[in-house]
Automatic annotation (TrEMBL):
Gene Ontology biological process terms in this record: cell-cell signaling
InterPro entries associated with the record: FJX1/FJ
Alphabetically ordered keywords of this record: Kinase, Membrane, Serine/threonine-protein kinase, Transferase, Transmembrane, Transmembrane helix
PANTHER family: FOUR-JOINTED BOX PROTEIN 1 (PTHR13147:SF5)
Gene encoding the protein: LOC115884892
Organism superkingdom: Eukaryota
Protein name (database record): Extracellular serine/threonine protein kinase four-jointed
Length: 445
């Protein structure tokens, strides 16, 4: 049978489709209305459910975000960054003063254990104890900075060679054998960043930055008169500002502590309590770890204030492509082998260049600060004072005016008003973090 014959056969079997006509004639109108109503009802229910479910989900999601870290409200960040870093923060509900514990952290459960930890390593819930403070290495304090500046006023350089980092930096040797590192940059703001970051560290009383001073490349001065050929080889221009830093020997690389890596990435009194339970480490090793973490607490605050791009932010940013980078030595951070002092190197991106890139990198600057709840009391007190007085700009500019010659001040600008404004905002942010930690951990059992 052909397809044509098959079609004809079907039509012959049901001539004029009389069965359909008979069905319609025998169906009462009420059933037609009920069918129509049921279809409209089913459509309405489906549409309502389809709208409500996504609405309820996103509304709940936004509610959770309001009670979590404020990082995501400051900048628009990718889901990759949130997944890698933000999900591991310690949680809390500040309104009720209750503590939401993540399962990756085991907390001390008894009051007796908490009291012991609070006495030995932590005081008042958020501060390093006097025992830790007394064990900190001396580092570089005001007297050593003054001695270095006075020395450079009379120093005579006899050799200039490659060293002290990248590009046009040089290692300089003076007539008496003392050495220094010269930071030369084409961009003046990088010299400003290095210098004013150094001044800020002194205001914060951080002993972790080597003595530094600004100088001018002047071939007629006693300092540079013996180095005409070396300076030409280095492609330095005359009358350019440089930062001359005391050379530090016996430096080793410094790694990022486990508590600041993505799987943990928070430090509070309970984390410190857990570290004291390590049966493998003896008391001296535990104390040594606390001393290092106390310096890291200062580093986190310092790098947040300056928006330093060339240290931990470098590791955090590259983590999205290289998951092993957090196990590598921290960039521009070293440890003295003879004193356990952490040395904060290369701060040229601070306060100017780093501030211009805040929109892109603020998420990384905030990651560690938002999860730091143990501080040196001295550092916290200075932050509170700077917050109250709002005078950080005048302090930095006064230091610049008093410590530098008229020649330096003619060539090198002071810190711009825009940078001072941003720095004050970041001081407020650090102050807020300290107060937040006080509200959570000072009274937490």
């Amino acid at each position: 049978m052909t397809y044509a014959n098959f079609s004809d056969h079907k039509l012959d079997k049901f001539p004029n489709c009389s069965w359909e006509r008979d069905f319609k004639q025998r169906t009462p109108p009420i059933y037609k209305n009920l069918c129509l109503i049921s279809v409209v009802f089913a459509f309405s229910v489906g549409l309502t459910i389809g709208i409500l479910i996504p609405f309820m989900y996103f509304n709940g999601y936004n509610g959770v975000r309001k009670n979590s870290s404020s990082l995501s409200s400051e900048v628009n960040t990718s889901s990759v960054i949130r997944t890698i870093f933000l999900n591991n923060s310690y949680g809390y509900v500040n309104d009720s003063k209750s503590l939401l514990i993540y399962p990756t952290v085991s907390f001390v459960e008894t009051n007796e254990s908490n009291q012991s930890t609070d006495d030995e390593f932590i005081q008042d819930g958020i501060y390093w104890s006097p025992k830790v403070e007394k064990s900190l290495p001396e580092g570089y304090k005001d007297q050593k900075h003054t001695l270095w500046s006075d020395y450079l006023n009379k120093a005579v350089a006899i050799r200039l060679e490659n060293g002290c980092g990248r590009m046009q930096n040089r290692l300089v040797t003076f007539r008496d054998g003392i050495k220094g590192c010269v930071r030369y940059r084409q961009n003046t703001d990088q010299i400003q960043g290095e210098l004013f970051s150094f001044y800020l560290a002194q205001i914060l009383r951080l002993p972790n930055l080597a003595p530094s001073a600004v100088n001018i490349v002047d071939l007629n001065s006693p300092l540079w008169s013996n180095l005409h050929n070396e300076i030409a080889s280095a492609q330095w221009n005359s009358n350019r500002p440089i930062v001359l830093t005391q050379f530090i020997s016996n430096l080793n690389s410094a790694n990022i502590p486990a508590v600041f890596k993505p799987l943990e990435r928070h430090l509070n009194k309970f984390d410190v309590a857990n570290m004291t339970k390590n049966e493998i480490l003896d008391k001296e090793d535990v104390l040594r770890n606390m001393v290092e973490l106390a310096q890291w607490s200062d580093l986190i605050i310092f790098d947040y204030l300056t928006a330093n791009l060339d240290r931990i932010v470098n590791n955090l940013y590259n983590y999205q492509w290289n998951v092993n980078i957090m196990d590598a030595p921290a960039h521009n951070l070293a440890k003295k082998s003879d004193s356990e002092l952490l040395v904060f190197l290369d701060n040229e991106s601070g306060l100017l260049h780093g501030y211009r890139l805040l929109k892109k990198y603020e998420i990384y600057h905030s990651i560690l600060l938002d999860n730091l709840c143990v501080f040196r009391r001295q550092t916290a007190d200075i932050i509170k004072k700077l917050k109250t007085k709002g005078n950080i700009g005048s302090l930095l500019r006064d230091m610049f005016e008093k410590r530098n010659s008229a020649t330096v001040k003619d060539i090198l600008p002071t810190l711009p008003d825009k940078s001072v404004k941003i720095l004050n905002e970041r001081i407020d942010r650090v102050y807020g973090q300290i107060k937040k930690c006080e509200s959570i951990f000072s009274k937490a059992l």
